[in-house]
Amino acid sequence: MNILDLEFVKGFIKMCDDGFNQGWHERNGGNLTYRVKEEDLNDVRKLLNMTGEWFEIGTEVPSLANEHFLVTGSGKYFRNVVLDPESNIAIILIDETGTKYQIQWGLKDGGKPTSELPSHLMNHAVKKEVSGGKHRVIYHAHTTNTIALTFVLPLRDEVFTRELWEMATECPVVFPSGIGVVPWMVPGGKEIAVATSDLMKEYDVTIWAHHGMFCSGEDFDLTFGLMHTVEKAAEILVKVLSITPNKLQTIQANEFRQLAKDFNVELPEKFLYE
Predict the structure, then answer these.
(1) What tens digit of pLDDT does each residue of 108-123 get?
(2) Which pTM was predicted?
(3) Which are the catalytic amino acids?
(4) In the chain, what are the domain boundaries?
């Protein structure tokens, strides 16, 4: 079997292409990582290079020791992943200390994993713990309307969550825990990784002000669908605000409570202010 024939690799490539086709990945923008199920590598271990150099991650993730990840490459374009996967993505292994990684497949023309690797791995560690191991995907994209809203809305979890919940009835069902907001920080560093991982203990979606969105999920479909839903709600809100700053009607707090009851989800009361 070829590595490109593995189902998780095909799903990863498709998600990269789907994101590009949404217009979320200009140039080399955005990144995607997947925590691999070890049994999925059983048929291709002989194809992995286990003798390569070890590189510093830039943070410590001991709970991810000895795990494999499929990642996009630094400086690589999402639009090229579907055309030449082996040049643009990689399978990496985290060492037994959780401080270094080794490229075992991919990036055949050279390069390193995404510059946001510290943020991704710190958030994988958090979501692995809080989800009982169910969450395996971390996705960052430059979602146009969400970014636009970070210039006009207060950068507060309560404001972004409530405003986006109101834009479509499905929103509180799709992201019932809400949305976290990180103020602008230099990307790629430990500071934004720590700030995001703190929020991801509570949320599955975090918005990076003036930069983009960061989502976590159990699989590719759920994670892409989550980001797609949030961005669709942001698009509706941008259109509403372009017409008038004052809504004539919207979904009310008690109506959200009824929705939560009927759809069997829990909505935090901090978002249900009058």
Answers:
(1) 999 999 999 999 999 9
(2) 0.95
(3) 116
(4) 3-271
